[in-house]
Amino acid sequence: MKRFFNTRERLVPEALEGLLRSPAGKDLCRLDGYPDIKVVLRRDWERGAGKVAVISGGGAGHEPAHAGFVGRGMLTAAVCGSLFASPGVDAILAGILAVTGEAGCLLVVKNYTGDRLNFGLAAEQARALGLKVEMVIVGDDISLPGHRQARGIAGTVLVHKAAGHMAESGASLDRVAAFAADVAARTRSIGLSLSDCDTYDEEHASRLAADEGELGLGIHGEPGAKRIALADAGALMTLAADALLETLPEGDARYGLMLNNLGTTPVIEMSLLLEAFAGTALAGKVALVAGPAPFMTALDMNGFSLTLVELTDDIAAALQADVGPTAWTGMAPWQEPVVIAVPNLPDIFAAAPSNNPALRDAVQRGAKVLLENEEALNALDARIGDGDAGSTFAETARVIDGALDRLPLADPQALMQTLGRLLARHAGGSSGALLSILFATAGRSDQARWQAALLEGIAAMQGYGGAREGDRTMLDALIPAVRALDEGAVWADVVRAARGGADATARMGKAEAGRASYVPDGQLADVPDPGAEAIARLFEALVPRT
């Protein structure tokens, strides 16, 4: 896998330096002591202010946890280890000494052996120095129900939030620790991923087949509780949600949900997953939601985790309180999407339908050829663009063909106006928009002849689209064809003009407009423009029947 890093050893310190240079780090600082001591803390923190400090940390690779949650209302300091490795005792002790005043400090620790031992030893040393230190261990993973030591995963962030809020309010160490422990006890999480993660290992090979995922996996690349077959998002979300639902006690308790991105799941898919969650049986028990967002990641893992916390009034208030760290995206009421009425849009079919048998037949033949050539045009576009030109023209064909019975085929001006509105409403892509402009402008033209009106429509296409003849776009086929129509040429000459324009694009060394203008010239050689090719094939299909 290709990665952005210099060396594995410098990865974490350099990432922390980047955080401190960023807007998210404007209120943060770090202790001197790299590479062994990697502690990020609040710049505004005053040990003598009488407030409890809240400290957490652990191995790197889970960003934005832990350093991203340092700030007002959450963590006072984060102690960062190397990649997926607990920080050392001295680093933890340095963090405790840097921020702990008379009010004491709370350590929030994920339930892993290294973290428990190192944070525990540091706590003992701090107590020996006269400091008040308490520790809360978070074990929110429910994927291994028979295991005595549940792992601490994304739910730890909710404990950060709750403890930080209580500490910010000025509560005593005993109250902060008790509140954090209560939240931890009420929290449960499960992860689901379609991939494992690569820990910057040159020999990394995924343990999962292309059609497999895992349910109940850890945040360090540990294998999941079970392998699962690849399925659609709704089915996968139901698997995870049902696993959580089975662990809930009976009753009418309300819950807060956190939907966490485990690393590289695209934003659009994370939003879709939250919508998928709305269709699960668990959704009816949810009152608050945080995310979707990355809270506790696992490097490049392509997956998500669900965290539930049983709410009390105090917990709900703590989770919704404003904080300084921008990595915490907030928690808000779970609600149905708000929908308002669409404003009245122009009536697409304002003109009465009428028939023109020859034109109707031509439209059907044109639609047929664009549909038949969808895959071929997509393949052509894939060589120089994003591979969807055929689909875009095919969709335009479907829209027009499906509306044939409602079109004013006997009235050219009304027909062009209707086509302009129809394509604006339903056709996609740049070609659909450009053809909508063509017909809408032509339909408003004062020209007596529809051929001349189409030339005005082409001028509007050029004005909005920015392309000219010779720029290697569909205009290279469309302009000569419509020009021939306007000059009264026979249809065979119109077709030759369109075909000649399309073929000429394959000899054009550089595209000056459209997506192909971003493609290196060498990749364009001998490849006709897909849009121009579509126009040429369309005109060839429109040859009048004798």
From TrEMBL:
<keyword id="KW-0808">Transferase</keyword>
<protein>
    <submittedName>
        <fullName>DAK2 domain-containing protein</fullName>
    </submittedName>
</protein>
<dbReference type="GO" id="GO:0005524">
    <property type="term" value="F:ATP binding"/>
</dbReference>
<dbReference type="GO" id="GO:0005829">
    <property type="term" value="C:cytosol"/>
</dbReference>
<keyword id="KW-0547">Nucleotide-binding</keyword>
<dbReference type="Pfam" id="PF02733">
    <property type="entry name" value="Dak1"/>
</dbReference>
<dbReference type="InterPro" id="IPR004006">
    <property type="entry name" value="DhaK_dom"/>
</dbReference>
<keyword id="KW-0418">Kinase</keyword>
<feature type="domain" description="DhaK">
    <location>
        <begin position="7"/>
        <end position="328"/>
    </location>
</feature>
<feature type="domain" description="DhaL">
    <location>
        <begin position="357"/>
        <end position="544"/>
    </location>
</feature>
<dbReference type="GO" id="GO:0004371">
    <property type="term" value="F:glycerone kinase activity"/>
</dbReference>
<dbReference type="InterPro" id="IPR004007">
    <property type="entry name" value="DhaL_dom"/>
</dbReference>
<dbReference type="GO" id="GO:0019563">
    <property type="term" value="P:glycerol catabolic process"/>
</dbReference>
<dbReference type="InterPro" id="IPR036117">
    <property type="entry name" value="DhaL_dom_sf"/>
</dbReference>
<dbReference type="Pfam" id="PF02734">
    <property type="entry name" value="Dak2"/>
</dbReference>
<keyword id="KW-0067">ATP-binding</keyword>
<dbReference type="InterPro" id="IPR050861">
    <property type="entry name" value="Dihydroxyacetone_Kinase"/>
</dbReference>
